[in-house]
Amino acid sequence: MDSLQLRDFLESKVSQYQTSSFIADDPISIPHRFRNKEDIEIAGFLAAAIAWGNRKAILKSCNIMMDMLDNSPSDFVKNASENEIAHLSSFVYRTFQGEDLPCLIRGLRHIYISCGGLETLMTPRNGESIKDVLVRLRSVLLPFLSQHACKHIANVEVGSAGKRLNMFLRWMVRPKTEGVDFGLWHGISTSELMLPLDVHSGNTSRALGLLQRKQNDWKAVEEVTSALRQFSPDDPVKYDFALFGLGVYEHFS
What we know:
By secondary structure, the chain is mainly α. Helix content is 50%, strand content 0%.
């Protein structure tokens, strides 16, 4: 395919996969359970934090997690007692172990009480990039995280692709017109977002000639997002739906 054909192909796949029917089987269904902005943010952040592996297992564990937060994640983060937070140590999902959720809740409490919330903390300042934002988020959370828990917050400074964090930003920033993402945060332009690169979108991108780098790391994120900006400068990450759908549902590679 030439460039125009490739753009049209991807646009057709965006239309196919970027629909409200996509929500039910995806971790984004977890924040869609809520209406309050801070509930959506916190539920989205925590759901994204464990969004790897089998999607049915992810959703099952996410729902257990929300039940443990009394299905009011914002209130729990701000007001739970230390004993209530300690009880979260029974939550386990794959490599997400008992100490990890209490650590994240304490870190989120600090962010909402002392940093103005996730939106304020993660909004670029003075020409910052999304990479700068993700570095700041990790630096703020680190004092509250155990050595094990810090593994769940991507370190893009050393090359991590930051897939789950970029996915969370996509959820918060992209407009809600298609009924999938939320469009809650207005201080970040959709043009600034970076592709939530994983094995599926990486393999599809390479098959389509959008990505040459072999590793799924931050340099690969920059490379493929730059290629997608040639098709949609204002919203390159909308193609996340196309690349993911082609990989997962059509086994395109």
